[in-house]
Amino acid sequence: MNRGPGGTRTPVTSGRPSAAAVLLVTSAAAFLSSLDLFIVNIAFPAIRADFPGSDLGQLSWVLNGYTVVFAAFLALAGRLADRFGHRRLFLWGLGVFTAASALCALARPCGRSSPPEPSRHSAPPW
Question: Is the pLDDT of residue 122 over 60?
Answer without folding.
Answer: no
